[in-house]
Amino acid sequence: MGVVVSALLMLSVYVAFRVFVWEALEVSQKQEAETRRLTRLRQAMQSVHTAG
């Protein structure tokens, strides 16, 4: 009985860890995309200023 309980516990810990890592990766990718978008926006603004 104890083996089953410990196996389930390890599995749940593993799943929670995987979910946590996945969320962290997704968040960092979103931030990266946002940063790129802001950089592009800033570059566009600068080019408009220089053109004007």
Summarize this structure briefly.
This protein is mainly alpha-helical. It has one helix at residues 2-51.
Overall description:
The longest helix is centred in the middle third of the chain and has 50 residues, at 2-51. It contains one helix and no strands. Helices cover 96% and strands 0% of the residues. By secondary structure, it is mainly alpha-helical. The model has no long low-confidence stretch (mean pLDDT 93).
Determine the number of helices (DSSP H or I, runs of at least 4 residues). Answer: 1
Q: H/E element string? A: H
The structural class is mainly alpha
Percentage of residues assigned to helices: over 70%
Distance between the termini: 76 Å
Query: Are there runs of 5+ residues with pLDDT below 50, and where?
Result: none
Major beta-sheet overview: none
Number of strands: 0
| Overall residue-averaged pLDDT value | 93
How much strand? under 5%
Spatial extent as radius of gyration: 23 Å
Shape: rod-shaped
Highlighted features:
52 residues; mainly alpha; 1 helix; 96% helix; rod-shaped
List the helices and strands and how they pair.
Blueprint: H1 2-51
